Amino acid sequence: MSRAIVTGSFDPITVGHEDLIRRAASVFDEVIVVVADNRGKDYLFTPEQRLQFARLTCAGMPDVSVRFSPRMLYEFCRELDTFTVCKGVRNAEDLAWENEQAVWNRERDGRIETVYLPSDPAFADVSSTRVREALRNGGSVDGLVPEKAKAAIERAAKQNLNEQGGF
């Protein structure tokens, strides 16, 4: 049985992430979506909200589960006894960044292999950064975030931005 981890901060999850998860699920018998928490990052959404968005997005996807991890990826791989990481890449910059991360993880545990899936060109311009920018500026996120999670993302963004004084 083949298993892979799809990891990211998902701040918030996008249609590109959703596509990657679906495609990974067609390649692997089981996919574990890991909502990561990097204490060095400034998030718009809380870990609980990001986990909720991922769960809403993945609801109904067979053999896909969603978990949260504040630990380093190589530590979580060990905990799950799963050493294949599946990452999506939109362009050369994504590939360079993801390759750095893959090498770093592999240096910490030689069992970890990273598999890259090229992004569908339809999602080449979709990123969590662009979604956050649209949300901060009152723009539409139609076609940028998964439909199953859209209302929750918009509601949480409004609440979080109001609390931060940015809405």
Give your account of this protein's structure.
The chain has helices at about 15-25, 45-60, 75-80, 90-110, 130-135, 145-165; strands at about 5-10, 30-35, 65-70, 85-90, 115-120. It is an alpha/beta fold. The protein has a single domain, classed as Rossmann fold. The strands form two sheets. Strands 1-2-3 form a three-stranded parallel beta sheet, sandwiched between helices. It has a two-stranded parallel ribbon with strand order 4-5. Strand 2 (about 30-35), helix 2 and strand 3 (about 65-70) form a beta-alpha-beta unit. It starts with a strand and ends with a helix.
Throw out a few tags for this protein.
Rossmann fold, 3-stranded parallel β-sheet, alpha/beta, two-stranded parallel sheet, 6 helices, 46% helix, globular, 19% strand, 167 residues
